[in-house]
Please model this.
Amino acid sequence: MKSILGIFLSMVWISIMEFSRNETFLKHYWTNHYGDMGLTFPSEPINGAIWGIWALCFSIGLFYLSKKFNFLETCLLGWLFGFVLMWLVTGNMGVLPYELLLFAVPLSMIEVIGAVWIIRKLNPKT
Model:
């Protein structure tokens, strides 16, 4: 039961961090960049739902990583797989406003550290 609670609470943490970062703090970077490409930044409810699924999958992945690796290793591997690979893909597609990485990199690290901390706090055996 604690495993499910840890995954759920880390998913909530990740969702709050993602929403705060991308819909509040960095939205102008996204909307300006997409507008320059003649596109509209996708922020419909379905996009939020997909990000919720991403947060759940990311939390589950962090949970399983934390069973095999220590805190720092879990954070580094989780950050690499959750964010660096996503930024490589979005950068390759030309839809990543690179200037936001100045803020997104440290904020995403805080996001992962918090999620792993929640998981490990509720599941001391991990």
Summary: The CA atoms of residues 62 and 78 lie 6 Å apart. The chain has one domain: 2-122. The two ends are 14 Å apart (CA to CA). The helical segments are 2-25, 27-36, 45-68, 71-92, 101-122.
